[in-house]
């Protein structure tokens, strides 16, 4: 039995896409991934490098953000625009709210023992400050080194979602978010949750904020009590064969750009790269039209650029959508 979100016509008009992953929400999901071993192809290198850099004090943060289940509420702030904004909110949490959130969190899963150190959270302001500082440390070593790649993946996904809406409306968007775990059966959105949660949620005119996630690659996350609007995560448009680049992989790609330039010295291919950068999410046909070349030539040049690591191709049905990678942006910035 799935978790069912019921939409009214008003909910559909208020449902919208977030501009990108929420920094605190991505950290929450990433910390959960670090505590297990799933998706070794996609996240194995990232997991090894992140664990090597993290301080042992991050274990306390993981106590409150377990691999499955609920995060203590005062660490939420999923829609904060920056990690600094989110952590400022954590530090400003009143002691009474901390105690209330901890009591609620402890009661959500009776099977999970409550760490003894948390008993002082509601009375020791210093402990809350240290927890926020630990979250900043975790973000610095788990998220920040990969931010450029996260932004590139998010940009490609935004182009894909915009095309879904343009060609099929909100129905196409909701149907294509994560078909295995998020199913649109109008007027109900059915979710398969990692926790196995079931039941019925009525949005009551609030709509739904759809937040892309690089680290939330499988199951969705949901907060139907969030203000001013409930939110739901969906994975960026990665294929199962894609992997999350580590800084080492990215550095290797950037270090070989000079060699790759031998394939890019021609005027036409340079125009193709420039066109993709300025028209993210363009199809091969659109690329050909704007670059002034044939579709066959556009496809050939786009393939070379993709193999060189300068562009990324996302599939939408039978259509290829092209965006530049961090290496492609770096190359264009360098030559400009």
Task: Write a brief structural summary.
With 336 residues, the protein is of the alpha/beta class. The protein is built from 14 helices and 11 strands. Helices cover 49% and strands 13% of the residues.
List its traits.
alpha/beta; 13% strand; 14 helices; four-stranded mixed β-sheet
What does this entry look like structurally?
The protein has helices at residues 9-14, 23-34, 40-53, 58-64, 83-91, 95-108, 125-142, 147-175, 247-255, 257-260, 267-278, 284-291, 295-307, 326-335; strands spanning 3-6, 16-17, 182-185, 188-191, 199-202, 209-213, 222-223, 231-235, 282-283, 311-316, 319-324. The strands form 3 sheets. Strands 3-4-1-5 form a 4-stranded mixed β-sheet. By secondary structure, the chain is α/β, with parallel strands linked by helices. It contains 14 helices and 11 strands. The chain starts with a strand and ends with a helix. The protein is globular, with a radius of gyration of 22 Å. Helices cover 49% and strands 13% of the residues. Mean pLDDT is 85; it is low at 245-260. The longest helix is centred in the middle third of the chain and has 29 residues, at 147-175.
Ordered list of secondary-structure elements with their pairings:
Blueprint: E1 3-6, H1 9-14, E2 16-17, H2 23-34, H3 40-53, H4 58-64, H5 83-91, H6 95-108, H7 125-142, H8 147-175, E3 182-185, E4 188-191, E5 199-202, E6 209-213, E7 222-223, E8 231-235, H9 247-255, H10 257-260, H11 267-278, E9 282-283, H12 284-291, H13 295-307, E10 311-316, E11 319-324, H14 326-335
Parallel strand pairs: 1-5, 2-6, 6-8
Antiparallel strand pairs: 1-4, 3-4, 7-8, 9-11, 10-11
Helix pairs in contact: 2-7, 5-7, 11-12, 11-13, 12-13
């Amino acid at each position: 039995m799935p978790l069912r979100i019921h939409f009214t016509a008003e909910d559909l008009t208020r449902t919208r896409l977030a501009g990108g992953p929420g920094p605190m929400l991505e950290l929450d999901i990433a910390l959960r991934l670090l505590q297990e071993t799933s998706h070794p192809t996609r996240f194995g290198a990232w997991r090894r490098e992140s664990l090597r850099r993290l301080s042992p004090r991050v274990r306390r943060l993981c106590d409150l953000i377990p691999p499955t289940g609920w995060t203590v509420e005062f660490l939420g702030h999923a829609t904060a625009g920056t990690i600094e904004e989110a952590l400022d909110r954590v530090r400003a949490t009143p002691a009474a709210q901390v105690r209330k959130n901890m009591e609620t969190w402890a009661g959500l899963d009776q099977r999970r023992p409550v760490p003894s150190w948390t008993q002082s959270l509601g009375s020791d302001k210093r402990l809350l400050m240290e927890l926020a500082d630990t979250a900043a440390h975790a973000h610095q070593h788990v998220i920040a080194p990969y931010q450029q790649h996260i932004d590139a993946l998010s940009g490609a996904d935004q182009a894909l979602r915009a095309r879904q809406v343009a060609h099929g409306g909100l129905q196409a968007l909701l149907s294509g978010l994560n078909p295995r775990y998020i199913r649109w059966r109008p007027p109900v959105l059915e979710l398969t949750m990692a926790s196995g949660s079931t039941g019925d949620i009525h949005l009551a005119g609030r709509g739904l904020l759809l937040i892309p996630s690089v680290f939330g690659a499988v199951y969705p996350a949901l907060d139907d009590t969030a203000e001013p609007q409930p939110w739901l995560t969906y994975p960026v448009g990665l294929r199962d064969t894609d992997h999350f680049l580590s800084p080492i992989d990215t550095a290797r790609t950037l270090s070989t750009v000079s060699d790759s330039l031998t394939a890019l010295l021609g005027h036409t291919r340079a125009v193709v790269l420039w066109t993709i950068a300025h028209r993210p999410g363009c199809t091969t046909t659109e690329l050909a039209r704007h670059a002034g070349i044939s579709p066959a030539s556009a496809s050939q040049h786009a393939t070379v650029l993709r193999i060189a690591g300068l562009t990324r191709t996302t599939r939408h049905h039978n259509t290829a959508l092209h965006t530049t990678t961090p290496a492609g942006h770096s190359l264009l910035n360098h030559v400009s």
